[in-house]
C-alpha cells in the first residue's frame, strides 16, 4: 500500500480528469455497484478517467478504442502482475493469468496445444456426461438455486475434463476439493478493508490454508502421473509432457500454478454465464420458444453432438450466449498497470498507474450497443454482429491474453444450456429481483432460485412481446 502511494506521488504528469479525492463511499460503491459508477464517470469525463478507489488513483479506459489499445495495440505497455488483482498470486502463483512478458509468452506456447480443437472435442463427452448426471436434480416440481447447482457442476467438470481427477474418487472426496476451492475463493468476496489483513484469522490466512490442502491433492496427482506414466485426454496430461520451442518443460510447481489458475479462471466464469443466461431466458419466453424450435430441428434424440457443441452449430443458442456475455461478461474487468507513461485521446497517464479496461461498462455504452439494458440476442445475428466495431465486444479479452479457455468455456455453457432446455423450463419466483456482486467475477448476489417445470410448458404458452 505504501509503495503504491509512493509510486503515485512520484508521478511526473497529472492523472487524467476524474474524482481523485479519497472517498469511502466511492470505494464501497465501486465494490457494490461498479457498473453504475463507471457509466456515470464515462458520462462526465469521457472514455478515460481517474477514480480514487480505496487508497489509490485508478485509471479506467472504456469503449472500443480503449479496449483495443490495452489488449492489442499497446498491450506490452501493461502488466497484469502488478495490477489491483495481484492478490490472486496468493492462490494461483505464477499461472498464465498472473504473469507477463516473455515468461507469459513461453508459458502460453506450452499451454496452447492443450486447448486445440481436437482436445476440447475429446472432452465434450465428459462434459455431457457430467451435465446429464447433474440434471437428475432438475426434475419438474423441484426448486433450487441454479447458481449453486451450476457451480458444483462446473467444479466437477473442471476436475474431470481438465485434470482427469475423478470428482467422486477417494482423494478428491476425502478433502472435499470443491468446498476447499470455494473457501479459498471467498477471500475475494470479503470486504476490501479485511483483505489487507494478514493475521492467522484473516481471510488471507483462510485462503492460504485452503490453497495448501488443494496443493496436496494436485501434487499427489502430478506425482502419481509422473511415476506411472499414466496419461489421458485431460489438460494435466498435456502439461506434464508439454514443452516450449527450446524443449523446456514445466516443473511441478509451474504445473500446480497452471492447474490452480485454470480451476479458478474456468469454473466461476461458466457458472455465472449459465446463471445470467437462464435469468434472462426466464424473462423472455419468446426467446426460449425459438431455442426449443431450433432443438427440435437440429438435435438427434434431444442430445447435442460434440461437434455441434464445439462449433456452436445451434445459431439461436449462439446469439443468446453472445448477448448474455455482452450484458453480463463474468470477467468484467481487465486489471493492468502501466509500465511507461502514455497518451490516449489527448490525455497523459503516468507510468506505474493502475489502469483497467472494463468489458461490462464498454458493453453498456448506448452509442455502441443501443438500449444496452435490453436483452436482445438479435444484436448478434450475423449481419448485425458484423457491424459491431472492433474492440467493442470483449467478453474474452483480446490480443495475446485472450482467454485461453474460451472454446472450452463456450462448449461447457452450450452443453449445460442445451441439455437443461431439452429437459425442463426454468421459471423465477415472482418476487425475485436480480442483484449483482463481483468477487472478482460478477454473479447473482443471492444465487438464482428457479422453479423447474416440464419442458413442454413453454411451447404451449402464448408468446409475449419482447421486453
Ligand atoms: C464463459 C467463460 C469464460 C469467460 C467469459 C472468460 C473470460 C476471460 C477473460 C476476459 C480473460 C482475459 C482477462 C484479461 O484481459 O485480464 C480470460 C483469461 C483467461 N481465461 Fe478465461 N473465460 C472463460 C472461461 C475460461 C475457462 C473455461 C478457462 C480454463 C479452462 C479459462 C482460462 C483462462 C486463462 C488461463 C486466462 C489467462 C490467459 C492469459 O493471460 O494468457 N477461461 N478469460
Notes on the structure:
With 467 residues, this protein is α+β, with helices and mostly antiparallel strands. The chain contains 21 helices and 13 strands. It has helices spanning 2-9, 24-32, 34-45, 64-73, 89-92, 101-111, 117-135, 146-162, 170-175, 177-186, 192-195, 203-228, 235-241, 252-283, 285-298, 306-311, 315-327, 359-362, 382-386, 406-423, 456-460; strands at residues 18-19, 48-53, 56-61, 78-79, 143-145, 333-338, 342-344, 347-349, 354-358, 424-427, 436-438, 442-444, 449-454. A six-stranded mixed beta sheet has the order 1-2-3-9-6-4, sandwiched between helices. Strands 5-13-10 form a three-stranded antiparallel beta sheet. A two-stranded antiparallel sheet has the order 7-8. Helix 10 (177-186) runs antiparallel to helix 12. The chain starts with a helix and ends in a 7-residue tail after the last helix. The relative contact order is 0.17. The site of protoporphyrin IX containing FE has 27 residues, from helix 14 and helix 20.
Counting helices, strands and paired strands, the structural category is: alpha+beta
Strand coverage percent: 5-15%
- Helix content estimate: 40-55%
Largest sheet: 6 strands, mixed
- Show unreliable segments: 458-467
Number of helix segments? 21
Shape: globular
Ligands: protoporphyrin IX containing FE
Gyration radius over CA: 22 Å
Give the rounded overall mean pLDDT: 90
Widest sheet: strand ordering = 1-2-3-9-6-4
Separation, N- and C-terminal Cα atoms: 46 Å
Number of strands: 13
Amino acid at each position: 500500500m505504501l509503495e503504491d502511494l509512493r509510486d503515485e506521488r512520484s508521478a511526473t504528469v497529472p492523472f487524467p480528469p476524474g474524482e481523485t479525492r479519497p472517498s469511502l463511499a466511492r470505494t464501497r460503491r465501486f465494490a457494490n455497484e461498479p457498473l453504475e459508477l463507471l457509466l456515470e464517470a464515462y458520462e462526465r469525463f469521457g472514455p478515460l478517467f481517474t477514480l480514487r478507489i480505496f487508497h489509490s488513483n485508478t485509471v479506467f479506459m472504456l469503449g472500443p478504442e480503449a479496449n483495443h489499445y490495452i489488449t492489442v495495440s499497446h498491450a506490452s505497455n501493461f502488466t497484469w502482475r502488478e495490477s489491483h488483482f495481484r492478490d490472486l498470486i496468493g492462490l494461483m502463483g505464477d499461472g498464465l493469468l498472473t504473469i507477463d512478458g516473455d515468461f507469459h509468452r513461453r508459458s502460453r506456447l506450452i499451454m496452447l496445444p492443450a486447448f486445440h480443437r481436437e482436445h476440447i472435442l475429446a472432452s465434450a463427452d465428459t462434459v455431457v456426461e457430467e451435465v446429464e448426471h447433474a440434471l437428475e436434480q432438475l426434475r419438474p416440481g423441484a426448486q433450487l438455486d441454479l447458481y449453486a447447482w451450476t457451480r458444483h457442476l462446473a467444479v466437477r467438470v473442471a476436475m474431470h475434463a481438465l485434470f482427469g481427477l475423478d470428482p467422486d474418487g477417494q482423494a478428491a472426496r476425502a478433502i472435499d476439493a470443491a468446498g476447499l476451492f470455494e473457501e479459498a475463493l471467498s477471500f475475494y468476496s470479503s470486504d476490501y478493508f479485511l483483505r489487507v489483513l494478514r493475521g492467522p484469522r484473516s481471510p488471507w490466512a483462510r485462503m492460504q490454508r485452503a490453497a495448501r490442502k488443494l496443493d496436496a491433492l494436485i501434487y499427489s496427482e502430478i506425482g502419481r502421473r509422473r511415476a506411472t506414466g499414466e496419461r489421458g485426454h485431460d489438460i494435466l496430461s498435456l502439461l506434464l509432457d508439454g514443452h516450449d520451442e527450446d524443449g523446456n518443460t514445466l516443473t511441478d510447481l509451474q504445473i500446480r500454478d497452471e492447474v490452480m489458475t485454470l480451476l479458478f479462471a474456468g469454473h466461476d466464469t461458466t457458472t455465472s454465464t449459465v446463471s445470467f443466461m437462464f435469468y434472462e431466458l426466464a424473462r423472455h419466453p419468446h426467446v426460449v420458444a425459438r431455442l426449443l424450435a431450433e432443438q427440435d430441428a437440429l438435435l438427434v434424440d434431444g442430445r447435442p453432438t460434440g461437434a455441434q457443441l464445439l462449433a456452436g452449430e445451434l445459431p439461436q443458442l449462439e446469439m443468446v450466449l453472445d448477448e448474455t456475455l455482452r450484458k453480463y461478461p463474468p470477467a468484467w474487468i481487465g486489471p493492468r498497470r502501466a509500465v511507461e507513461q502514455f497518451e490516449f485521446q489527448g490525455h497523459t497517464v503516468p507510468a506505474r498507474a493502475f489502469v483497467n479496461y472494463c468489458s461490462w461498462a464498454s458493453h453498456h455504452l448506448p452509442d455502441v450497443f443501443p438500449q444496452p439494458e435490453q436483452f436482445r440476442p438479435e444484436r448478434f445475428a450475423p449481419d448485425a454482429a458484423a457491424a459491431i466495431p472492433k474492440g467493442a465486444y470483449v467478453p474474452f479479452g483480446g490480443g495475446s491474453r485472450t482467454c485461453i479457455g474460451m472454446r472450452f468455456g463456450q462448449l461447457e455453457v452450450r452443453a449445460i444450456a442445451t441439455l437443461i432446455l431439452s429437459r425442463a423450463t426454468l421459471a423465477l419466483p415472482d418476487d425475485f429481483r436480480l442483484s449483482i456482486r463481483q468477487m472478482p467475477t460478477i454473479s447473482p448476489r443471492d444465487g438464482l432460485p428457479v422453479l423447474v417445470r416440464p419442458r413442454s410448458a413453454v411451447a404451449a404458452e402464448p408468446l409475449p412481446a419482447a421486453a
